[in-house]
Amino acid sequence: MKDQLHAIHQEAIEKIKESDSVKHLQDLRVTYLGKKGSITKVLRGMGSLSKEERPVIGDIANKVRESITENIDKKKEEFEKHALEKQLESEAIDVTLPGRPIDIGGPHLLTSIIEEIEDLFIGMGYEVREGPEVETDYYNFEALNLPKNHPARDMQDTFYLTKDLLLRTHTSPVQARTMHKYGGQKPVRMICPGIVYRRDDDDATHSHQFTQIEGLYVDKNVKMSDLKGTLNVFAKKMFGEEREIRLRPSFFPFTEPSVEMDISCKVCQGKGCSVCKKSGWIEILGAGMVHPKVLSMAGYDPEIYTGFAFGMGPDRIAMLKYGVDDIRQFYMNDIRFLQQYHKA
Ligand code: 2NL
Fold first, then answer.
1. In the Cβ-directed half-sphere of 92, how many Cα atoms lie within 13 Å?
2. What is the Å distance from ligand 1's center to 252 Cα?
3. Confidence band (pLDDT; 50, 70, 90) for 344?
4. What is the DSSP letter of 153?
5. Could you tell me if the CB of 288 is within 6 A of ligand 1?
6. Ligand 1 contacts CB of residue 192 (under 6 A)
7. Could you read off the pLDDT of 308-331 as tens digits, one per residue?
8. Pairing state of beta strands 255-264 and 188-197?
9. Of the candidates 160, 170, 134, the residue with the CA atom closest to the CA atom of residue 294
10. Nearest Cα to 32, choosing from 61, 56, 3?
11. How many angstroms is it from 210 CA to the middle of ligand 1?
12. Which of 41, 163, 301, 312 is packed most tightly, with the most Cβ within 10 A?
Protein backbone atom coordinates (compact mmCIF):
# COMPACT_ATOMS: atom_id res chain seq x y z
CA MET A 1 0.00 0.00 0.00
CA LYS A 2 2.88 2.26 0.76
CA ASP A 3 4.23 1.68 -2.74
CA GLN A 4 0.80 2.23 -4.26
CA LEU A 5 0.46 5.57 -2.45
CA HIS A 6 3.95 6.64 -3.55
CA ALA A 7 3.12 5.67 -7.14
CA ILE A 8 -0.11 7.70 -7.02
CA HIS A 9 1.85 10.65 -5.61
CA GLN A 10 4.48 10.48 -8.36
CA GLU A 11 1.86 10.21 -11.10
CA ALA A 12 -0.23 13.05 -9.70
CA ILE A 13 2.75 15.43 -9.41
CA GLU A 14 3.70 14.60 -13.01
CA LYS A 15 0.15 15.18 -14.31
CA ILE A 16 -0.16 18.46 -12.40
CA LYS A 17 3.10 19.68 -13.94
CA GLU A 18 1.81 18.88 -17.45
CA SER A 19 -1.61 20.36 -16.80
CA ASP A 20 -2.58 23.22 -19.16
CA SER A 21 -5.74 24.68 -17.64
CA VAL A 22 -7.66 25.34 -14.42
CA LYS A 23 -10.36 23.04 -15.69
CA HIS A 24 -7.84 20.20 -16.10
CA LEU A 25 -6.54 20.82 -12.55
CA GLN A 26 -10.06 20.44 -11.23
CA ASP A 27 -10.38 17.10 -13.01
CA LEU A 28 -7.07 15.97 -11.44
CA ARG A 29 -8.29 16.99 -7.98
CA VAL A 30 -11.35 14.76 -8.43
CA THR A 31 -9.28 11.92 -9.89
CA TYR A 32 -6.80 11.80 -6.99
CA LEU A 33 -8.46 13.34 -3.97
CA GLY A 34 -12.17 12.86 -4.66
CA LYS A 35 -14.57 10.52 -2.81
CA LYS A 36 -14.12 7.99 -5.56
CA GLY A 37 -10.50 9.01 -6.23
CA SER A 38 -7.40 6.81 -6.31
CA ILE A 39 -6.28 7.54 -2.72
CA THR A 40 -9.69 6.68 -1.28
CA LYS A 41 -9.65 3.48 -3.29
CA VAL A 42 -6.30 2.43 -1.79
CA LEU A 43 -7.40 3.31 1.73
CA ARG A 44 -10.39 1.00 1.37
CA GLY A 45 -7.90 -1.87 1.76
CA MET A 46 -6.84 -0.62 5.24
CA GLY A 47 -9.04 -3.29 6.87
CA SER A 48 -6.48 -5.98 6.05
CA LEU A 49 -3.67 -4.11 7.80
CA SER A 50 -2.34 -4.72 11.30
CA LYS A 51 -2.97 -2.27 14.17
CA GLU A 52 0.64 -1.05 13.94
CA GLU A 53 0.58 -0.53 10.18
CA ARG A 54 -2.70 1.41 10.01
CA PRO A 55 -1.50 4.74 11.50
CA VAL A 56 1.67 4.57 9.41
CA ILE A 57 -0.27 4.15 6.16
CA GLY A 58 -2.82 6.73 7.29
CA ASP A 59 -0.03 9.19 7.91
CA ILE A 60 1.51 8.57 4.48
CA ALA A 61 -1.92 8.92 2.83
CA ASN A 62 -2.46 12.28 4.56
CA LYS A 63 0.95 13.55 3.51
CA VAL A 64 0.34 12.47 -0.10
CA ARG A 65 -3.05 14.18 -0.04
CA GLU A 66 -1.54 17.36 1.38
CA SER A 67 1.25 17.40 -1.17
CA ILE A 68 -1.11 16.88 -4.12
CA THR A 69 -3.44 19.62 -2.81
CA GLU A 70 -0.51 21.98 -2.41
CA ASN A 71 0.75 21.28 -5.92
CA ILE A 72 -2.68 21.78 -7.45
CA ASP A 73 -3.18 25.08 -5.59
CA LYS A 74 0.24 26.34 -6.60
CA LYS A 75 -0.32 25.46 -10.25
CA LYS A 76 -3.77 27.08 -10.16
CA GLU A 77 -2.26 30.26 -8.77
CA GLU A 78 0.27 30.26 -11.63
CA PHE A 79 -2.53 29.96 -14.18
CA GLU A 80 -4.47 32.80 -12.60
CA LYS A 81 -1.43 35.07 -12.42
CA HIS A 82 -0.67 34.36 -16.06
CA ALA A 83 -4.26 35.11 -17.11
CA LEU A 84 -4.22 38.41 -15.24
CA GLU A 85 -0.93 39.43 -16.84
CA LYS A 86 -2.32 38.68 -20.27
CA GLN A 87 -5.44 40.72 -19.58
CA LEU A 88 -3.44 43.70 -18.30
CA GLU A 89 -1.22 43.54 -21.35
CA SER A 90 -4.16 43.53 -23.76
CA GLU A 91 -5.87 46.40 -21.96
CA ALA A 92 -2.77 48.55 -21.70
CA ILE A 93 -3.17 52.25 -22.65
CA ASP A 94 -0.29 54.13 -24.19
CA VAL A 95 -0.54 57.44 -22.34
CA THR A 96 2.20 58.94 -24.51
CA LEU A 97 0.06 58.79 -27.70
CA PRO A 98 -1.18 62.25 -28.85
CA GLY A 99 -4.87 62.87 -28.07
CA ARG A 100 -7.60 63.09 -30.72
CA PRO A 101 -8.26 66.76 -31.57
CA ILE A 102 -11.64 68.04 -30.33
CA ASP A 103 -13.68 70.05 -32.86
CA ILE A 104 -14.75 73.01 -30.75
CA GLY A 105 -16.73 74.87 -33.41
CA GLY A 106 -17.03 78.65 -33.54
CA PRO A 107 -19.45 81.47 -34.12
CA HIS A 108 -21.45 81.66 -37.35
CA LEU A 109 -20.00 84.18 -39.84
CA LEU A 110 -23.06 86.44 -39.42
CA THR A 111 -22.66 86.31 -35.63
CA SER A 112 -19.01 87.36 -35.98
CA ILE A 113 -19.94 90.30 -38.24
CA ILE A 114 -22.74 91.38 -35.88
CA GLU A 115 -20.42 91.21 -32.86
CA GLU A 116 -17.77 93.23 -34.68
CA ILE A 117 -20.33 95.95 -35.45
CA GLU A 118 -21.68 95.81 -31.88
CA ASP A 119 -18.18 96.32 -30.48
CA LEU A 120 -17.62 99.37 -32.69
CA PHE A 121 -20.80 101.06 -31.51
CA ILE A 122 -20.36 100.03 -27.86
CA GLY A 123 -17.05 101.94 -28.17
CA MET A 124 -19.07 105.04 -29.15
CA GLY A 125 -21.41 104.76 -26.14
CA TYR A 126 -24.25 102.75 -27.69
CA GLU A 127 -26.03 99.96 -25.85
CA VAL A 128 -27.06 96.69 -27.53
CA ARG A 129 -30.73 95.73 -27.27
CA GLU A 130 -32.68 92.78 -28.58
CA GLY A 131 -36.41 92.25 -28.91
CA PRO A 132 -39.10 89.81 -30.09
CA GLU A 133 -39.19 88.39 -33.62
CA VAL A 134 -42.98 88.08 -33.39
CA GLU A 135 -44.20 91.68 -33.41
CA THR A 136 -47.41 93.63 -33.42
CA ASP A 137 -48.52 95.53 -36.51
CA TYR A 138 -48.24 98.68 -34.40
CA TYR A 139 -44.51 98.47 -33.50
CA ASN A 140 -43.43 96.95 -36.81
CA PHE A 141 -45.32 99.40 -39.04
CA GLU A 142 -47.58 102.06 -37.47
CA ALA A 143 -45.02 103.42 -34.98
CA LEU A 144 -42.53 103.76 -37.85
CA ASN A 145 -44.80 105.95 -39.95
CA LEU A 146 -46.00 103.04 -42.09
CA PRO A 147 -49.77 103.35 -41.61
CA LYS A 148 -52.14 100.71 -43.01
CA ASN A 149 -52.39 100.94 -46.81
CA HIS A 150 -49.07 102.83 -47.04
CA PRO A 151 -47.47 101.76 -50.36
CA ALA A 152 -44.10 101.08 -48.65
CA ARG A 153 -45.75 98.14 -46.85
CA ASP A 154 -45.72 96.26 -50.17
CA MET A 155 -41.95 95.96 -50.05
CA GLN A 156 -42.14 94.62 -46.52
CA ASP A 157 -44.78 91.93 -46.91
CA THR A 158 -44.21 89.30 -44.25
CA PHE A 159 -45.59 86.23 -42.46
CA TYR A 160 -48.71 86.93 -40.42
CA LEU A 161 -49.66 84.89 -37.34
CA THR A 162 -52.92 86.80 -36.94
CA LYS A 163 -54.24 90.02 -38.47
CA ASP A 164 -52.25 91.91 -35.87
CA LEU A 165 -49.24 89.66 -35.14
CA LEU A 166 -46.44 89.14 -37.64
CA LEU A 167 -42.78 88.20 -38.04
CA ARG A 168 -40.91 91.52 -37.87
CA THR A 169 -39.58 92.88 -41.17
CA HIS A 170 -36.81 94.94 -39.54
CA THR A 171 -35.33 95.42 -36.07
CA SER A 172 -36.72 98.99 -35.80
CA PRO A 173 -39.65 97.86 -33.59
CA VAL A 174 -37.09 97.19 -30.81
CA GLN A 175 -36.04 100.84 -31.11
CA ALA A 176 -39.64 102.04 -31.29
CA ARG A 177 -40.43 100.05 -28.12
CA THR A 178 -37.46 101.62 -26.32
CA MET A 179 -38.47 105.16 -27.31
CA HIS A 180 -42.07 104.49 -26.20
CA LYS A 181 -40.78 103.14 -22.88
CA TYR A 182 -38.66 106.25 -22.28
CA GLY A 183 -41.76 108.27 -23.16
CA GLY A 184 -39.93 111.24 -24.62
CA GLN A 185 -37.98 111.91 -21.45
CA LYS A 186 -34.62 110.19 -21.85
CA PRO A 187 -32.07 110.26 -24.68
CA VAL A 188 -31.54 106.99 -26.60
CA ARG A 189 -28.32 105.62 -28.00
CA MET A 190 -28.74 102.00 -29.04
CA ILE A 191 -28.10 99.40 -31.69
CA CYS A 192 -30.21 96.32 -32.23
CA PRO A 193 -29.15 93.26 -34.17
CA GLY A 194 -31.38 90.35 -35.02
CA ILE A 195 -33.17 88.14 -37.49
CA VAL A 196 -35.92 89.63 -39.65
CA TYR A 197 -38.37 88.20 -42.20
CA ARG A 198 -39.90 89.15 -45.52
CA ARG A 199 -42.26 87.34 -47.85
CA ASP A 200 -39.87 86.53 -50.66
CA ASP A 201 -38.95 83.83 -53.17
CA ASP A 202 -35.51 82.59 -52.14
CA ASP A 203 -32.67 82.76 -54.65
CA ALA A 204 -28.96 83.63 -54.63
CA THR A 205 -29.63 87.21 -53.49
CA HIS A 206 -32.99 86.89 -51.68
CA SER A 207 -33.82 85.07 -48.47
CA HIS A 208 -37.14 85.12 -46.57
CA GLN A 209 -34.99 85.26 -43.41
CA PHE A 210 -31.95 87.48 -43.00
CA THR A 211 -30.17 89.58 -40.40
CA GLN A 212 -30.26 93.28 -39.73
CA ILE A 213 -28.50 95.64 -37.39
CA GLU A 214 -29.95 99.08 -36.78
CA GLY A 215 -28.74 102.06 -34.80
CA LEU A 216 -30.64 104.92 -33.20
CA TYR A 217 -29.45 108.11 -31.52
CA VAL A 218 -32.06 110.49 -30.10
CA ASP A 219 -31.19 113.50 -27.98
CA LYS A 220 -31.43 117.28 -27.94
CA ASN A 221 -29.46 118.83 -30.78
CA VAL A 222 -28.58 115.71 -32.81
CA LYS A 223 -27.74 116.85 -36.36
CA MET A 224 -27.19 115.35 -39.81
CA SER A 225 -23.45 116.10 -39.40
CA ASP A 226 -23.44 113.81 -36.32
CA LEU A 227 -24.86 111.04 -38.50
CA LYS A 228 -22.24 111.58 -41.18
CA GLY A 229 -19.39 111.68 -38.64
CA THR A 230 -20.61 108.52 -36.91
CA LEU A 231 -21.02 106.59 -40.17
CA ASN A 232 -17.59 107.76 -41.34
CA VAL A 233 -15.93 106.39 -38.18
CA PHE A 234 -17.88 103.14 -38.57
CA ALA A 235 -16.97 102.68 -42.25
CA LYS A 236 -13.26 103.28 -41.68
CA LYS A 237 -13.07 100.97 -38.64
CA MET A 238 -15.07 98.23 -40.33
CA PHE A 239 -13.69 98.35 -43.87
CA GLY A 240 -10.31 100.09 -43.55
CA GLU A 241 -8.95 103.55 -42.73
CA GLU A 242 -8.41 104.35 -46.43
CA ARG A 243 -12.15 103.98 -47.24
CA GLU A 244 -14.10 107.11 -48.27
CA ILE A 245 -17.85 107.44 -47.69
CA ARG A 246 -20.53 109.08 -49.82
CA LEU A 247 -24.15 109.87 -48.88
CA ARG A 248 -26.82 109.84 -51.58
CA PRO A 249 -30.42 111.07 -51.11
CA SER A 250 -32.91 108.24 -50.62
CA PHE A 251 -36.31 107.54 -49.10
CA PHE A 252 -37.51 105.67 -46.02
CA PRO A 253 -40.90 106.30 -44.42
CA PHE A 254 -39.34 106.54 -40.94
CA THR A 255 -36.60 109.08 -41.73
CA GLU A 256 -36.58 112.55 -43.25
CA PRO A 257 -34.27 113.35 -44.91
CA SER A 258 -33.08 109.86 -45.84
CA VAL A 259 -29.75 108.80 -47.31
CA GLU A 260 -27.90 105.79 -48.54
CA MET A 261 -24.22 105.39 -47.71
CA ASP A 262 -21.63 104.00 -50.10
CA ILE A 263 -18.00 103.22 -49.34
CA SER A 264 -15.22 103.50 -51.91
CA CYS A 265 -14.48 100.12 -53.47
CA LYS A 266 -11.58 98.33 -51.83
CA VAL A 267 -10.91 96.12 -54.83
CA CYS A 268 -10.25 98.89 -57.35
CA GLN A 269 -9.65 101.86 -54.98
CA GLY A 270 -12.59 103.67 -56.58
CA LYS A 271 -11.48 103.23 -60.20
CA GLY A 272 -14.32 100.85 -61.09
CA CYS A 273 -14.36 97.04 -61.26
CA SER A 274 -16.77 94.10 -61.38
CA VAL A 275 -17.35 94.13 -57.58
CA CYS A 276 -18.57 97.76 -57.59
CA LYS A 277 -20.13 97.41 -61.04
CA LYS A 278 -17.72 99.98 -62.50
CA SER A 279 -19.00 102.76 -60.20
CA GLY A 280 -16.11 102.78 -57.71
CA TRP A 281 -18.66 102.76 -54.84
CA ILE A 282 -20.40 100.02 -52.87
CA GLU A 283 -23.73 100.53 -51.07
CA ILE A 284 -23.49 99.58 -47.39
CA LEU A 285 -26.45 100.99 -45.48
CA GLY A 286 -29.48 103.25 -45.31
CA ALA A 287 -29.92 106.05 -42.80
CA GLY A 288 -31.54 109.38 -42.07
CA MET A 289 -32.89 111.82 -39.50
CA VAL A 290 -35.72 110.22 -37.50
CA HIS A 291 -39.06 111.35 -38.92
CA PRO A 292 -40.82 113.89 -36.62
CA LYS A 293 -43.95 111.71 -36.67
CA VAL A 294 -41.94 108.71 -35.38
CA LEU A 295 -40.56 110.87 -32.56
CA SER A 296 -43.90 112.35 -31.54
CA MET A 297 -45.69 108.97 -31.61
CA ALA A 298 -43.16 107.80 -29.01
CA GLY A 299 -43.74 110.90 -26.88
CA TYR A 300 -40.69 112.95 -27.93
CA ASP A 301 -41.33 116.59 -28.85
CA PRO A 302 -39.69 116.94 -32.31
CA GLU A 303 -39.13 120.63 -31.59
CA ILE A 304 -36.83 119.65 -28.72
CA TYR A 305 -35.55 116.22 -29.61
CA THR A 306 -33.99 115.12 -32.89
CA GLY A 307 -32.22 111.93 -33.85
CA PHE A 308 -30.64 109.86 -36.51
CA ALA A 309 -31.07 106.19 -37.39
CA PHE A 310 -29.39 103.74 -39.72
CA GLY A 311 -29.84 100.14 -40.76
CA MET A 312 -27.72 97.61 -42.55
CA GLY A 313 -27.67 93.94 -43.48
CA PRO A 314 -24.88 91.76 -42.06
CA ASP A 315 -25.67 89.18 -44.79
CA ARG A 316 -24.83 91.73 -47.48
CA ILE A 317 -21.72 92.91 -45.62
CA ALA A 318 -20.50 89.33 -45.18
CA MET A 319 -21.12 88.61 -48.89
CA LEU A 320 -19.14 91.71 -49.91
CA LYS A 321 -16.32 91.15 -47.44
CA TYR A 322 -15.80 87.45 -48.19
CA GLY A 323 -17.09 87.14 -51.75
CA VAL A 324 -19.97 84.82 -50.79
CA ASP A 325 -22.16 84.57 -53.89
CA ASP A 326 -25.29 82.93 -52.44
CA ILE A 327 -27.15 84.31 -49.39
CA ARG A 328 -28.73 80.89 -48.78
CA GLN A 329 -25.32 79.56 -47.69
CA PHE A 330 -25.80 81.39 -44.37
CA TYR A 331 -28.95 79.44 -43.55
CA MET A 332 -28.25 75.96 -44.94
CA ASN A 333 -25.94 75.02 -42.03
CA ASP A 334 -23.47 73.22 -44.28
CA ILE A 335 -20.49 72.83 -41.96
CA ARG A 336 -18.08 72.84 -44.94
CA PHE A 337 -19.17 76.39 -45.76
CA LEU A 338 -19.39 77.67 -42.18
CA GLN A 339 -16.03 76.24 -41.06
CA GLN A 340 -14.16 78.38 -43.58
CA TYR A 341 -14.98 81.44 -41.51
CA HIS A 342 -13.95 80.22 -38.07
CA LYS A 343 -11.34 82.60 -36.81
CA ALA A 344 -7.94 81.05 -36.15
C1 2NL B 1 -31.64 99.66 -44.59
C2 2NL B 1 -32.16 100.92 -44.04
C3 2NL B 1 -32.85 101.99 -42.06
C4 2NL B 1 -33.77 102.99 -40.08
C5 2NL B 1 -33.36 101.88 -40.78
C6 2NL B 1 -35.04 103.65 -38.08
C7 2NL B 1 -35.52 103.23 -36.87
C8 2NL B 1 -36.28 104.09 -36.12
C9 2NL B 1 -36.57 105.33 -36.56
C10 2NL B 1 -36.09 105.69 -37.78
CL11 2NL B 1 -36.90 103.58 -34.62
N12 2NL B 1 -35.34 104.87 -38.52
N13 2NL B 1 -34.28 102.80 -38.81
C14 2NL B 1 -33.62 104.25 -40.64
C15 2NL B 1 -33.08 104.35 -41.92
C16 2NL B 1 -32.72 103.23 -42.64
O17 2NL B 1 -32.48 100.85 -42.68
O18 2NL B 1 -31.27 99.60 -45.72
N19 2NL B 1 -31.61 98.60 -43.79
C20 2NL B 1 -31.10 97.34 -44.22
1. 9
2. 7
3. very low
4. G
5. yes
6. no
7. 999 999 999 999 889 899 999 999
8. unpaired
9. 170
10. 61
11. 15
12. 312
